[in-house]
Amino acid sequence: MFAAVVALAGIGRASAADVIDRVMAVVNRQPILLSDVSAAMLLQLVPRPEAGDPLASTLERLIERSLILEEVERYQPPDPAPEEIEKRVDAIRQRFGTPDAFPKALTSVGMTDAQLRSHIRDDLRSVTYINQRFGESDPDARDTLVAEWVGSLRRRAEVTVLYVAKP
Question: The whole model's pTM is what?
């Protein structure tokens, strides 16, 4: 009996533990976590918003990225050259100034160097796919076509946003 009470007391403490991460959105059953959003913001993996809630804007970019990557996986564009990935990693590394700051930044958002390289690889494959699909025409017309396409992807997808932006 005493062992059961001790075990139940331990369960109570475990449930009161700190939250490690939060689900911000779910795109076709794939979660986007707060740590994903934090990494994208810290490492500038998506464009920074000019105004408004940076978390909401970054989350929206990651939702769009997720939808695009599903299409990319269906059509399998070629992998980017390793030099191009390295060039992007170096550009991110340079933003942190000192050699120690970059690995610390990765650790602070729970990302490894391999995960960053994979993220960059996927971004470059997405660019290749979009270039193949929409060509390199007038930038304004192209942006409109891409936005309409992403909108259609979103309408066909299961997207649940769990983050509520601050007023």
Answer: 0.84
Give the span between the Cα atoms of 35 and 24, in whole angstroms.
9
Query: What's the confidence (pLDDT) of residue 49?
Result: 82
**What CATH number corresponds to the domain at position 66?**
1.10.4030.10
**pLDDT tens across 64-91, in order?**
999 999 999 998 889 999 999 999 999 9
Q: Measured between alpha carbons, how far is residue 40 from residues 44, 48, 156 in Å?
A: 5, 9, 25
**Alpha carbons 62 and 83: distance in angstroms, whole number:** 25
Are 41 and 54 in contact by the 8 Å Cβ rule? The answer is yes
Dihedrals phi, psi of 79, to nearest 5 degrees: -70, 145
The DSSP letter of residue 167 is: -
Query: For 126-136, what is the mean pLDDT?
Result: 89
Q: How many domains does the chain have?
A: 1
What separation in angstroms does the CA of 158 have from each of 46, 82, 142, 155? 22, 33, 26, 8
